[in-house]
Write a structure and sequence with these properties.
The chain has 3 domains: 1-111, no CATH class; 114-223, no CATH class; 311-495, Leucine-rich repeat, LRR (right-handed beta-alpha superhelix). Helices cover 44% and strands 10% of the residues. The chain is built from 18 helices and 14 strands. Helix 7 (194-204) runs antiparallel to helix 8 and helix 12 (281-295) packs antiparallel against helix 13 (301-319).
Length: 498
């Protein structure tokens, strides 16, 4: 998508400044909620404004994410996850109309990908002295514009943050840098998203209770946390005892933890582990409860906050040695099931990772390293998902052909090879592979040859490229060339058993 001239949107002067995004939202907030065509125009402007401010490091491309495949997004060099303008508008639409809305949503969701802006914002924030805050005071937000609202939140954050640091001296203000985290691009205090907590408290008139709850947790958790319900469970690092089992031990599956490793998709295995008093007990129970609600078509904001609090408090300890072996890790159904790491890290640490947690999903980032060594690891056979987009010419047709010939990929169900410079020879090798006949989804978005069915904004797949028909005629039916039915609640659900 080329940069276009934007003289105005319905009377709002546009100059690709972040202030102009605030002006659009202030003038057309309700229209953005109701008018999809108008929202699409604004989404384009959000992306182009980010590119105008970041410069050559940012550019339009197509999403490689399963849920947004085919949508245009902005990739920023050095940032794993792209900026999705559609998500910014969804965030705006998702605000309740029954309480005062947070102004400036579109801008706040856009600038997260502009590192220079975030660094300037942090420096400016720290220059202003903190003042004492009365949590019981009245802080009305109705009628505030975006600038006034941000000023109020920043003032509260300085004062509350100063009191917090007095209790937790190791906490410092930083910028969240994990792109698949909600904290990405936001100012955070240690592990606490204080700005978000303040915004949530202001919108619901519960600022005092929200902040006091966090301070109470700090008082409890700055001392030793007994995750094992009275059993020793030292923190990650020297002396940490892994719960993992070797591959020969898994065959027997004698203990509840060994059963989970042997049956990573089993809900019954997780419940048995929780019932045995494992340190993961609380998180397993909470995440399974939320899963049940979501499968029933509902959810619970309170439960989600409780889960986030558990992970913030205990996540690194529960991760054990995994925390030092990967870039990021994610808990599903109470245990680490997804990790992000480089190809070199996988080769070095795969055995430890799969002996320590029921990992089913892996996302690779640079450096890829020796693809042959990566594919030779037998632990690949225990994965259901492998995401390795964006390696370009370092993967290419040669990498695709090598991938197709590897027996270790036979159990993968979801594969992402977007933007990997794969042409017709590589795609044909993958289609001919006997090891990929059961793969449910392979994403080729952004490659010279792309047989991936495309999706619309509602995630209903509606188009299959001619290349998919040609491959099927030549090599027979492949599930990943089919136009799929509706996606499950979450792709992790594809591997879950009762």
């Amino acid at each position: 998508m080329a940069m276009a001239a934007w003289p105005a949107i319905e009377g709002v002067t546009l100059d690709h400044s972040y202030d102009s995004i605030d002006r659009i939202e202030a003038a057309h907030r309700e229209r953005l909620r109701a008018d999809a065509e108008f929202a699409a125009v604004v989404e384009s402007y959000l992306g182009e404004t980010l590119i105008a401010n970041v410069g050559a490091a940012a550019a339009w491309d197509f999403s490689s994410e399963l849920q947004t495949a085919g949508q245009q997004v902005v990739f920023v060099t050095g940032v794993e996850k792209p900026f999705e303008p559609q998500v910014a508008v969804i965030q705006l639409r998702g605000q309740s109309t029954k309480r005062p809305g947070k102004p400036g949503v579109l801008r706040d969701e856009t600038v997260r990908w502009d590192r220079k802006d975030r660094e300037a914002a942090l420096a400016s924030f720290l220059k202003v002295p903190a003042e004492e805050i009365d949590l019981a005071g009245a802080y009305p937000i109705e009628g505030l514009d975006a600038a006034g609202y941000r000023s109020l939140v920043a003032r509260l954050a300085r004062g509350i943050g100063a009191a917090y640091v007095a209790r937790v001296p190791t906490a410092t203000w930083t910028i969240g840098d994990v792109s698949n985290s909600d904290a990405f691009g936001r100012l955070v205090l240690g592990d606490w998203q204080l700005f978000g907590a303040i915004q949530w408290g202001l919108s619901r008139g519960k600022l005092q209770s929200i902040i006091e709850e966090q301070f109470a947790k700090v008082t409890k958790t700055t001392t030793t946390v007994d995750l094992g319900r009275g059993r020793a469970h030292p923190a990650a690092g020297a002396g940490f005892r892994s719960h993992g089992a070797s591959s020969t031990e898994i065959a027997g599956a004698v203990t509840p933890f060994e059963r989970v490793l042997a049956e990573p998709g089993s809900i019954a295995a997780r419940r048995a582990l929780a019932a045995a008093g494992d340190p993961h007990e609380e998180l397993i129970e909470k995440q399974l409860e939320l899963r049940d609600l979501q499968r029933a078509g509902s959810g619970s904001a309170k439960l989600q906050r409780e889960i986030a609090a558990i992970i913030a408090r205990d996540g690194k300890t529960l991760a054990g040695p995994i925390a030092g072996l990967v870039s990021t890790y994610t808990f599903y159904r109470g245990m680490i099931a997804e990790v992000t790491l480089s190809g070199e890290q996988w080769v070095a640490g795969a055995a430890t990772l799969l002996a320590t947690a029921p990992i089913q999903h892996v996302q690779l980032v640079a450096p890829l390293g020796d693809l042959g060594a990566f594919l030779a690891r037998p632990e690949l056979l225990r994965l259901r998902t492998l995401l390795m987009p964006g390696f370009g010419a370092s993967f290419g047709d040669a990498g695709a052909i090598q991938f197709a010939a590897a027996p270790t990929v036979a159990n993968l169900r979801r594969i992402d090879l977007a933007r990997d410079a794969i042409g017709r020879p590589g795609v044909e090798a993958l289609a001919a592979s006997p090891y990929l006949e059961r793969a449910a989804r392979i994403n080729f978005a952004g490659n010279p040859a792309n047989p991936t069915p495309h999706a619309d904004d509602l995630n209903q797949y509606y188009a299959r490229p001619n290349l998919a028909d040609e491959l099927e005629q030549q090599f027979g039916r492949r599930p990943w060339l089919d136009v799929p039915d509706a996606e499950p609640i979450h792709w992790d659900e594809q591997g879950v058993t009762p």
